[in-house]
């Protein structure tokens, strides 16, 4: 299997459980992302030799993966695909200050990027915040705000949320921002919103169209991380639990199944951000590749006629307009085709 075919194969099995053999042991996890630079992202990682689970999302590089020829190319990754498994994640519930709270805050303060989510009843300035979730690359913390109260923010979380040097990844930050500002006096800053990123990416890929609606986290995970419906079933379990009991987040102790939901909806925000960054950078990468070849693959005569001080927009960069035109034409064509097949209630995403 060559590099390109292996890369395509791995992209087809995104969201599936796979095993990889490293120099330090045998690991299993759910494939979230793979790129041509030989790096892959796995979630729900487990060391099969020690039996230890590793929370969060882990990145593995080609040189870490063993194979028979000690070759580090992507085509020689030693992997096999397992059957889909029920999602699994480790988390730490913080419901008192005496034991775990201090060490959790110290760990969070050391991060450059983390993901944030929250659950409660009518989550806004008029509602009630019950749970506040924070995930780093290695740990997931579930802060029980219902029991901890405002002191949880005053004793460290507020400093993190307002720190402009720590990036917070959130899906639809509007409600959390409103709640934190009006109930706790916290001005949330330096946020990467995956719902906003989804709209921006859609506009880029359709040549300027805007979607007629925003996307849920479940939709983003399926569309961008290629997760299977089973892998995101935890979102539907949350919706069902809230429908059955509007005050479910006040229940103590909260059932482990719902604690897992709180953890999972936070954990996946980190790889989702990385995927958006890859997608947003694709045009830049293409244009830079054109810049690299602009002179070195041309003739010496052409190079001699090139003015180094000329500031006219090069032809290599003008192709960005061509990208946008082609994408827009494709989007219009797909819109017309889909509109013939779909009612207005389930119309395509662009307008």
UniProtKB/TrEMBL annotation:
Sequence ranges assigned to domain 3'-5' exonuclease in this UniProt record: 92-281
One Gene Ontology cellular component annotation held by this UniProt entry: PET complex
Keywords: Exonuclease, Hydrolase, Nuclease
Gene: EXD1
Annotated organism of origin: Alligator mississippiensis (American alligator)
Pfam short name (any one): DNA_pol_A_exo1
InterPro entries in alphabetical order: 3'-5'_exonuclease_dom, piRNA_biogenesis_EXD1, RNaseH-like_sf, RNaseH_sf
Protein's UniProt name: Exonuclease 3'-5' domain-containing protein 1 isoform A
GO molecular function, one term: 3'-5' exonuclease activity
GO biological process: piRNA processing
């Amino acid at each position: 299997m060559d590099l390109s075919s292996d890369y395509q194969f791995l992209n087809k099995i995104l969201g599936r459980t796979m095993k990889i053999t490293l120099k330090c042991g045998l690991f299993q996890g759910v494939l979230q992302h793979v790129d041509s630079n030989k790096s892959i992202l796995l979630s729900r990682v487990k060391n099969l030799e020690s039996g230890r689970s590793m929370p969060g999302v882990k990145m593995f590089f080609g040189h870490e993966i063993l194979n028979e020829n000690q070759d580090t190319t992507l085509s020689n990754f030693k992997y096999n695909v397992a059957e889909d498994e029920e999602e699994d994640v480790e988390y730490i519930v913080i419901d008192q200050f005496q034991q775990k709270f201090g060490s959790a805050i110290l760990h969070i303060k050391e991060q450059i990027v983390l993901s944030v989510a929250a659950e409660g009843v009518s989550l806004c300035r008029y509602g009630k915040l019950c749970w506040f979730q924070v995930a780093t690359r290695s740990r997931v913390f579930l802060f029980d705000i219902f029991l901890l109260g405002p002191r949880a923010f005053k004793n460290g979380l507020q400093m993190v949320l307002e720190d402009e040097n720590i990036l917070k990844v959130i899906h639809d930050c509007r409600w959390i921002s409103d709640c934190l500002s009006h109930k706790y006096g916290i001005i949330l800053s330096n946020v990467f919103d995956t719902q906003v990123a989804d709209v921006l990416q859609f506009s880029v890929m359709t040549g300027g169209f805007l979607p007629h609606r925003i996307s849920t986290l479940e939709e983003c995970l399926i569309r961008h991380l290629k997760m299977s419906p089973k892998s995101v079933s935890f979102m539907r379990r949350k919706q069902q639990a809230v429908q059955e009991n509007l005050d479910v987040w006040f229940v103590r102790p909260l059932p482990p199944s719902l604690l897992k939901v709180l953890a999972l909806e936070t954990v996946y925000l980190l790889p989702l951000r990385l995927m958006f960054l890859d997608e947003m950078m694709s045009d830049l990468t293409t244009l830079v590749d054109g810049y690299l070849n602009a002179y070195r693959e041309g003739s010496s005569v052409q190079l001699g006629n090139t003015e180094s001080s000329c500031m006219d927009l090069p032809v290599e960069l003008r192709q960005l307009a061509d990208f946008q035109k082609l994408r827009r034409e494709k989007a219009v064509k797909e819109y017309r085709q889909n509109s013939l097949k779909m009612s207005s209630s389930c119309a395509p995403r662009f307008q």
